[in-house]
Amino acid sequence: MPRTVTSTASTAWQGDLIGGSGTTTLETSRLGTFPVTWKARSDEAEGGTTSPEELLGSAHATCLTMQLSNMLAENGTPPTSVDTSAAVSFNVGEGGITGIELTVTAKIDGIEDADFQRLAQEAKETCPVSQALKGIENITLTATLS
């Protein structure tokens, strides 16, 4: 029976876009509050702050990893480990997310690379975050067995 789980986060901002700053809080998990600034989003060079794109990358990498791990187990080849990264590109001039590069490295006993590639691609297409991001045209996946 389907069940809806709601997760909550919030952001508080002071000032205008360029000179202002804020904090984003992971409310459901209570894992923390993190500073956010336009500079962190547009310059890639500000340590100690995050951006919507970094948070989106984390969500996408986590979702894909969980989906793939489940699919591998259902295939009879449960993974020993799956490590995923997501590089989210943000075009400052156009103000939009232009692509996401997903990279998966997995250790799995008893699977052929072709089967792994098929399952990884299917996981990319079907994980809920991928479904939510269908408007981003350029989402790529590189999957490697270690």
Automatic annotation (TrEMBL):
Annotated region (Disordered), positions in chain: 1-26
Compositionally biased tracts (Polar residues): 1-13
Listed GO biological process terms: response to oxidative stress
An example Gene Ontology molecular-function term: peroxidase activity
Domain of life: Bacteria
PANTHER family cross-referenced by the UniProt entry: OSMOTICALLY INDUCIBLE FAMILY PROTEIN
Protein name: OsmC family peroxiredoxin
Organism lineage string: Bacteria, Bacillati, Actinomycetota, Actinomycetes, Micrococcales
